[in-house]
Amino acid sequence: MLTFTIRRLVLAVPTLLFISLVIFLLLELAPGDPMAQVPLTVPPEVKEKMREALGLGQPLHIRFWKWIVQFFWIEPQVLIDHYFGTTLSEGKLRVISWQTRSPVMDIVVQRIPQTLWVVGTAYVVAIIIALPIGIYSAYRQYSWFDQLGTFVSMVGFSVPPFFSGVLVIVIFSVQLGWFPSIYDTTHVVNSWDSFVYQLKQMIMPVMVLALQITAQLSRFMRASMLDNLNQDYVRTARAKGLSEYVVVMVHVLRNSMIPVVTVIALGIPSIFGGAIITEQVFKVNGIGQLLIGALQANDLPMVQTLTFIFAVLIVLFNLIADVLYGILDPRIRYD
Amino acid sequence: MTELSQPQPTKPPRSQWYDVWDQFRQHKGAMMGATLFFLIVAAVYLGPYLWDLDPTKTAIRERNQGPSLAHPFGTDQLGRDLLARMMAGGATSVSVGITAMLLALFLGSFVGVLAGFFRKLDGPLMRLTDLFLALPLLPLLLVMMLLFREPLNAAFGLERGIFILIVSAIGITSWMPTARIVRGDVLALKEREFVLAARSIGTTNTRLITRHILPNVLSPIMVSATLGIATAIITESALSFLGLGFPPDFPTWGRLLFDGVDYLQQFPERVIWPGMAISLTVLSVNYLGDGLRDALDPRIRGR
């Protein structure tokens, strides 16, 4: 198992390098000019100097190498400095955003808590809702509850977040006036009232995100439970006279959770990606909105770094899911 | 021994597809999904012949009207007829969905068959699939939309350029699941006796693939085709919704939804119509795929 993990970790390095190269080259093909916004009155030689200041004067491979060094070598040093008060990264050039002229990672660190709060809560809520639904609809297969669950999860699959989000805004903000339609990220929770306000503004984005995740997870849970309910060991457990609760909730559930746990792990990065739209609908200024803003402003270092962070998350959680599978199910060992 | 006295089968021989159709008809949701999907497709493609108002014609005096006989869905802020716009938008959305699905299906089956059939290609092609699966797709789609819009517009004209861009972007980023499924099935089929028999009479690889392998992997391909339409329509609408899809004067369902958001307070129905259209189409396609999967699975068939 350990060798498998190490091998996968080592394999992840070229994968990530390749992905970063793909993203870099894709952005390099961009026809957009970062100098397009500069007024025409600026003389060309000044423009050329500005270009060089952005690091655009050098050939392709040097710029790629510089980005790699900045991202993998200097940014971790900044992190270490931040935690231990050392001065490893002093005077070294970090990845700089063209929009704000400040380090990209600083902005990302500012934005991540908002995304994590909304997306994380939605994920937890979805898991809490989806698992019981999946378990019960598998236990009572083809009952009205199961049919309803199937329909609801089909709807969850089919209604895109940009519609369900707008729909809940129409219903709960415009018609009923219960919740604010815009997520206020500057809101500080310091009293009971402000906590209630925070809850109110989180309900709608969490609801929209959770609907989608619940739809997927409950289907998986149901399928996995159904696979296990007809196995021989379940009959043995019943024959031994175990109560129905113990049979289902202990024996079957534990075995059915194995694929579900890996699916949960695999879904985490895609949630970050999927949250881009939800963030846009509810005006949450998380990293999804940061990416869209950077794209529209042609801020290539920001886009490159953010896209790469998404890729790292995907590769990382794929790895975690594979390792979890091996740990949870002793029959599956990759050695 | 009555069976033996009548050795002729009483029923005429039936092809596999009759059985599939029988099983498919049993699935209520699938039949409803199929009917709804064909209705929607007919409405968006044939509707404009019956309702011949121009979706782009502005009439400022008639702007922001509610539903009436002249405009059943009302008019928008420039006085354009919303029913005509919904049909025009639907035609674009459904065309994008179907074309992108075909492209993804072609790429996926091609990679899947090659990887499954030729052992040497298996490793590299599957690594490539893994790589594509590890890419953050929505951000990359957004990047692609932003970067290649202008050159393609210049090369093919505004509407065709965007159409090609969206279809190829969605197709290139969604072929991987099909490739994996097809590869798995081809790997299993390759060891079967009929393939060996075909090979023993000297069938070339190309013929083997087109005559013996491909017809047998048709069912998983068909299932991923239906699901592919659903994801392609949702992706296109998402891109349009984020303002990175089709240009403003060129309606699609996602674009209509995006435009409607600005008038959410006064005219919520402008958001509801395109949203409902997208959701219903995707829902019907999903049910269709669900039924198709059940009907094409020989283990379930006949129950």
From TrEMBL, chain B:
Keywords: Cell membrane, Membrane, Transmembrane, Transmembrane helix, Transport. It comes from the Bacteria. It is a multi-pass membrane protein. InterPro entries: BP-dependent_transpt_permease, MetI-like, MetI-like_sf, OppC_N. GO terms for cellular component: plasma membrane. Its main location: membrane. One of its GO terms (biological process) is transmembrane transport. The chain crosses the membrane at residues 30-51, 96-118, 130-149, 161-182, 217-246, 271-289. It is found in: Cell membrane. PANTHER family: ABC TRANSPORTER, OLIGOPEPTIDE TRANSPORT SYSTEM PERMEASE PROTEIN APPC. Belongs to the binding-protein-dependent transport system permease family. This is ABC transporter permease. It comes from Ruegeria pomeroyi.
